[in-house]
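hey can u check if this looks right to u? its 568 residues, i copy pasted from the old doc so theres a chance i mangled smth
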Amino acid sequence: MSTASTPPIDATTTPSWADLTAHQAALNPDLRAWFAQDPGRAARLTFDAADLHVDLSKNLVTDETIALLVRLAQDVDLAGRRDAMFRGDHINVTEDRAVLHTALRRPSGASPELTVDGQDVDADVHTELAKVYAFAEKVRSGEWTGVTGERVRTVVNIGIGGSDLGPVMAYEALLPYKAEDLDVRFVSNIDPTDVAEKTAGLDPRTTLFIVASKTFGTLETLTNARLARDWLWTELAAVGALEDSDEARTAAVGKHFVAVSTALDKVAAFGIDPANAFGFWDWVGGRYSVDSAIGTSLAIAIGPARFEEFLTGFHAIDEHFRTTPIEQNVPALMGLLNVWNVNFLGAHTHAVLPYAQYLHRFPAYLQQLTMESNGKSVRWDGSPVTTETGEVFWGEPGTNGQHAFYQLIHQGTRLVPADFIAVANPAHPLADTAAGDEPVDVHSLFLANFFAQTKALAFGKTADEVRAEGTAEDLVSARVFSGNRPTTSILAPALTPSVLGQLIALYEHITFVQGVVWGIDSFDQWGVELGKKLANEIAPAVTGDAAALAAQDPSTQALIGWYLEQRS
């Protein structure tokens, strides 16, 4: 029996799970004492993976905890499942597919060659990459023009889910690398406000739309694509650049629209030349696709050379995860720590707090990556899960979050593990000159907050320390910080394309590790299908079909009725 189809090992029946349960019951976390008694703790629990410097020492673990978690990984055969993924076994069992986002960033000429289901995966990937790069260079150089012969100044990416969250997050993160004469906008929401706002102020003669939908059938994406096409025709006509004929309109679409899709017949029916459609494969999940042709808008913005650096960063973490022993393997250890926090310490959420403004969309990106992957209640063989799965991922950039929700993390009743992310060298090394003072490096001030927050969360402040500050006794309890709030610190030299790729790959593999322990298929997403199906069934009721309205439940009927009254 192949590794892909082997029933999952029930982690809760393993010796290591029993030992972890007993260990947790006897554990009295005390980070203050642990650090005081063990000067080598920080060094021993700090690891490097490519350019990422990761400090796990402020988590609620001892050496015994780590050893038991490593044993758990062995008991559930994490290494075997990892190897199955990398070689292309069909570990996405509910869709009978390989899981090969790691193949998207294998360098040209990688050895041994990767052949899956009779296909030369390396050749396929690099052929499509070359096509994306050639198109990106045409747009960047001005060779690609619109119907009036003017070069593209604005690219509008139309997609949703992984076809939006990945590209927009990466674009925002790598803005310092963007071509100065090009801007990219992103449309995802079917709310017509989104497409209206994103096309506002644009010149149709210099605007290029990328419609990203593998099947070219996603409701939101195709609706927005049609709205964008109507906008293009209307605005080109308004500036005298479009004749009133079907031929002229079709020609305009051909010059102002390209697609990321494999449904070439539907692409052609929309008016896009199939030669200008860039594809990817069913072994790439949407939330794992930013390094595929889905990243075409990013490749245009930062250029093929920088996009190659982006892929190189992914690959560096892939290789770390694939080859490093579990006890030094950063994604494996972080995934196992998340299992410890969820299943043994009772955490329900996980904060990601980037102290880097360019990463402001990273928590939103991770929401899809982690929650669409591991928000499951059945295992990959269809049996019920045997323990809690998934976490609610959330977060905002520091220091904004400090003035919003850190109160709950510091002094609330809920345990909220948090990942703090920062870079040593900012894109904009600015100084603040206060009256009469020497200039102060603002990034150093910013990072002082990063270091202070993890210290405060770990070590807190005791009642005696509060009293020593002269605080009135009736206020002491309000100013006590319990500490023992777990955090992981992730530092990198700078937010380069490579480092961004490393961060994304890190969390991809963290998510994978948790899925293996829980025995779930982290690569399907059936949970999104029911709502989409019902939306299609309800749509006629919302547009006035009395029979469709009558078929709804009383609550839905009443809500639609109120809506229709307001619209009328």
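The two ends are 62 Å apart (CA to CA).
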